[in-house]
Amino acid sequence: MNIEKIDKSGQKKNARWESFKEWVKKHILAIVLVVSAAVIAGVFIIAIRSIKYEQTASVELKLPTKKPAPKKFYSPLTGMEIANEAAAKLPVTGVMIENSPAARPQSGLKKAGVVYEAVAEGGITRFLALYQGEKPALIGPVRSLRLYYLSWAAPYKASIAHVGGSPNALSQVRNGNYRDIDQFFNDGSYWRSRDRYAPHNVYTSGEKLDQLNSAKGYNNSEFTSFARADGKPVESPNATSVNINLSGSLYNTSYAYDKTSNSYLRSMAGAPHTDREDGQIAPNTVVAMEVGVEARAQNYDGYED
After folding, report:
1. Helix or strand or coil: residue 113?
2. Is 189 domain-assigned?
3. Distance between CA 160 and CA 129 in Å, rounded?
């Protein structure tokens, strides 16, 4: 009984297998097409995914990058930020400005980039005010030149505005090695005011000096600048006050550090030293230099040298 059941079961399986083979033979083309379609679909899906990945990668590469900070430019004369590189090469002009009591208050001193002060004659001090890009409407009173001021102006490749000078200073400034813009030969760039007496009343302006420089071809000044710090106010500056005894009470000066403006408020003869148009003079940096003075009797011409 059991053997018979097994035989019949085997016969049924063989019959189904033979039937399946017959079905495959009849539908072989359809099977091939289905398998091929499946393979193509798989490849297509992989390709689609690859394309999507490549597109995604491409988009990521095109993401905006952080723009570099704009380049800054600084004045070689003052260290202050300026508009562009061309402004750093503008011509520097030095002006001899008087400091006798009859010349006070002066005009244009506060807008100067650098100012030198020294004794000119008889204990009276005088200023060499240097400008580059600054254009005060009024500068003066303009006075005569001394040789040592010329030496201080030379490294800046500066023009020198003055009204005459000591014989040795004039012989040097007129030898062709300097940019001489003496009032004696350029009267149209200077004028005399009516509110002061001569010789304390010769004035000029930044605009007129620019025009004079341009007419003479003095179009730029390239020179080595001073080393600069960041200029931020400090809790303990190197000096909170500076007192300078130059020649006497009328010319002795003092500087008091003001943290609010990060500058030194200048006083002279016991009172604030003011610019007639712009108020108290207040430089950011003060340099006091003690130098020797040599008397040269053989070249004595009545002027300090």
Report:
1. coil
2. yes
3. 10
Q: Is residue 191 part of a domain?
A: yes
The pTM score is 0.76
pLDDT in tens, 7-35: 555 566 666 666 766 765 666 655 655 55
SS3 of 54, please?
Answer: helix
100, 200 in Cβ contact below 8 A? Answer: yes
CA 66-68-70 angle, 5° bins: 140
pLDDT band at 43 (very low <50, low <70, confident <90, very high): very low
User: Are both 201 and 159 inside the same structural domain?
Assistant: yes
Tell me the residue range of the domain where 47 lies.
Answer: 11-55
Q: pLDDT category, 66, cuts 50, 70, 90?
A: confident
Residue 211: helix, strand or coil by DSSP? helix
* CATH code of 119's domain: 3.50.90.10
CA distances 239 to 193, 248, 254, 257, 259, Å, are 39, 23, 12, 7, 12
**46 and 108 share one domain:** no
